[in-house]
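Problem 12. The chain below contains 480 residues. Write out its predicted structure in token notation.
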Amino acid sequence: MQVRVRFAPSPTGFLHIGNARTALFNWLYAKSVGGILVLRIEDTDQKRSTKEAVDMAIKSLKWLNIDWDEGPEIEGPYGPYYQSDRLEIYKEYTDKLLEEGKAYYCFCTSEELEKKSSMQKTLNQLITYDGKCKAVSLDEAKERIKNGELARVRFNCPKDEISVFEDFVRGTVKKASHEVGDIVLCRENGFPTYNYAVVIDDMLMRITHVIRGEDHISNTSKQVLIYQAFGFEVPKFAHTAMILGSDKEKLSKRHGASTLMDFKDEGYLPQAIRNFLALLGWTHPEALETMVDEDMIKAFALNRFSKSPAIFDTAKLRHLNAWHIRNTDLDEITNLFLPFLIKDGFLKEDYTEEEGAWAKKLVSVIRHNCVVLNDISKYVPIFFQNDFEITTEMKEILEKEESQKVLKFFKEKISEMDTIEDANIKDLIKLTQKEVGVKGPLLYHPIRYALTGTSEGSELSHICDILGKESILYRLNKFV
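Solution.
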């Protein structure tokens, strides 16, 4: 049987790290076993669900390069893929439960229910519905509804049973049915609750494996009982560990838990985010830290999840991002840098082919210094500003006799060159070292200060390659 998994966000807010990790784990598992990933939008909370959140969720997944096989924009055989379009389906199954006595209408008001739960809390009792409306016959209930009364639909939870499921992370999980109680299946407005709709959807969409966060474990115990009431086959589960901040507290914005689009705007690479997310609760069998998709897909298995909470480590994320910036294909990483060059005014939106080639060369040099794509703005200005200020300390070094010898020799040879390229500049630096008789900082610092006005940055040969002969000579003339 083909593996079918799903990612089912609720569009009540933008996609954050926890959502994204769940999406990634499902995507990796589907890819690793040749399965199907279904994207389902769980938008039955009409008060909080928004189209903006739906659009942003889809946009975020596309940016993260997580593609789905069925769902919005890619219709499949088990749609609709928006829960709000599936109300007739839920009603059909609700009527079936009601007719079989496995569900019943509840006419208790919200105020009544609040009083009952408050009393149970005061008495330190389990907070579950007392079953008051269970005695109302189905015919009487339908008549009362016909006459305008509002009613919820409750699950007639079987008594003295145990809800049991096997979890790839937690092992065997059990819960007594009386602890679950007669939960609400449908609200007064006819919309299904999460625990009810998800069972029907997962069954009808042929979902074989459910991979989600451990905060859903209590929900799963309820869902198993509903599966059994319908006679549905229960899927296999994997509840992944929660994500904590560096202080071991629940992850929040103060830990850097931004939306995915915030990470995009800050200059994080989608492949670096995927790499980082995979390490939040899952380990590669060879303990790899820096990984590309092929590494993760090839090794991904549900028995490699950790029970221990995952720690959101910003330093590790930045390290991974820097690694991916350095190691991503040059054409691909250039395309990711381009929006930042345009945003900062270093490149026109309608750039020419020649300007695009220059930008590619620029990226090839600067990417080694960048942790995030935004960092490029710190290193590009030196290529645009022939006139710049230097520090007093730099000026003193440039005025030294040894420095002047280095700069004069370097300038003389540059003026004789027809082309300025990385390779011949490296040769020239070696020749300068040999002819002038200096090396290390005494050799490199004068050239770097004169050409860039900075004490650090890319390799000098790379800088010269981009500056070109005219700019190099202009800058050297100011200090020789």
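Discussion. The domain at 383-477 is CATH 1.10.10.350 (Arc Repressor Mutant, subunit A). Students who got a different answer should revisit the alignment rule from Section 12.3.
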